[in-house]
């Protein structure tokens, strides 16, 4: 779950696994897989960073990425 802020200043907690897309319109619009759209105050890059940190926390994204050269290929 990620905590974001609606345009009216109220906090909202979203299930990050349900996010389909994030776009600037110029406000940030988060679209869920259900089709629901939520406008938030945070810029796209901040939402992406927050979601990425959440995914790392639950083990869905690795902490580092190895280059092909470091694997001996």
From TrEMBL:
Query: What are the UniProt keywords, alphabetically?
Result: Cell projection, Cilium, Flagellum
User: One Pfam family from the UniProt entry?
Assistant: FlbD
Q: InterPro entries this protein is in? A: SwrD-like
Name by which UniProt lists this protein: Flagellar protein FlbD
